[in-house]
Amino acid sequence: MSLLAINWAEAGIKAGQFILSFSIIVVLHELGHFLPARWFKCRVEKFYLFFNPWFSLFKKKIGETEYGLGWVPFGGYVKIAGMIDESMDKEQLKKPAQPWEFRSKPAWQRLIIMLGGVTVNLILGFTIYAVMLWHWGESYVPTNKLAYGISTDSLAQSIGLRDGDQIKSVDGEYIDRFSKIPLKVVLGSAKTMEVERDGQPVTINIPDDFAAKLIHYKAINFIDMRVPFLAIDSVVDTTVAGKIGLRHGDRILSVNNKPVPYYHEFRKSIQGSKNKTADLVVLRGADTMNLKAPIGANGQIGLYPVSVKEKFEVKEIKYGFFEAIPAGFKKSIETLEGYWLQLKLIFSGKVNTNESLGSVISIGKMFAPEWDWQQFWSLTAFFSLVLALMNILPIPGLDGGHALFTLVEMISGRKPSEKFLEYAQMGGMVLLLGLMAYALGLDIFRVIRDLF
């Protein structure tokens, strides 16, 4: 594979969504520090979106604050006078404390300033989820209404699951939302899964190392809804499907002489033909055609199947404005719980850290290849809540580290020395920057590996 094989238009759309999403999250996070700082009469010297080592893309001073746009899209910051932060402004700290400096304020005011960003991110995530539920509602196919059962990958099959199985329960509990079953297995350390196969009950025992394998192979969706592959809805002209003449209404009967009545079987057959030519048998009207499809290294052909939504019993939930508020709060709590379980899984050593860490590259890939506002806002809410959770961790250099030292001061009545806070900040920043560099390095390695 080469750089020419990358879909740059798709990559650009994903990058655009990522930059807009994180700009919203970061600006509001920093505003959460900025506003209480100003309320408590602290001088805020800088307010930046993205970091600006050596130079800024844009800057303008209004009053006592310089507002600017940096060129390193890894976050943002506010520089509050008299605060030991990532700016490491030691010269200012050598001077006597001034009334308008952060260090001169009472501990309770400093605590509010430091927790302001986390608070705003929590509110933002909850608000987005609530508005989304109010505007779009929710729809899903209940687990007991999967007309064609489940589709399975090789990992699912390795523990005894089979295509067409009907899932009845996980650890004895019926889970109505099918999408929550993989999370239950990965994050909830599920031990058994009860399925119905050919009218008979079957118990599937889940090995202890199964979650680690799913994360290692990035196969979190090891099971999915099995849906019939009825026909092609649309074709991307510039892809393999368009170039070999496939079009709306065509029905692909087989790939390499293997029937593909279900869409996951078609995808699996195409994926198995990477860098090869796949033989397709296509039904168009009353005519049968044999086409040869040269499949690239990405294992994709460039078509979309017709919707089979009418073949499933879809449960739709609509929320009024006041109903969406508690529903959004519940969804926020579930999101935080799910991410916390992921962190516990990583720190427990049950999964390989190299497989679970990712940088802005991994995050950007999560956005849709076409601009999708519903997915955009869903990911923005998710990342806002994740940022809040990560920032509140009691690590020097993060908001949680600053808050921890302030709480110790409030309880003990003794303020840590500025020299101690300075060293703690330096240690935390080295740790965080090292982790960011490591994650970025892993992502760059993955990109190069996929290219070649």
UniProtKB/TrEMBL annotation:
GO terms for biological process: proteolysis. It comes from Flavihumibacter petaseus NBRC 106054. Its EC number is 3.4.24.-. Belongs to the peptidase M50B family. Keywords: Hydrolase, Membrane, Metal-binding, Metalloprotease, Protease, Transmembrane, Transmembrane helix, Zinc. It is a multi-pass membrane protein. One of its GO terms (molecular function) is metal ion binding. Its cofactor is Zn(2+). It comes from the Bacteria. It is found in: Membrane. Residues 233-284 form the PDZ domain. Residues 18-434 form the Peptidase M50 domain. The chain crosses the membrane at residues 12-31, 111-136, 376-399, 420-441. Pfam families: PDZ_6 (PF17820), Peptidase_M50 (PF02163). The keyword Transmembrane helix applies. This is Zinc metalloprotease. GO terms for cellular component: membrane.
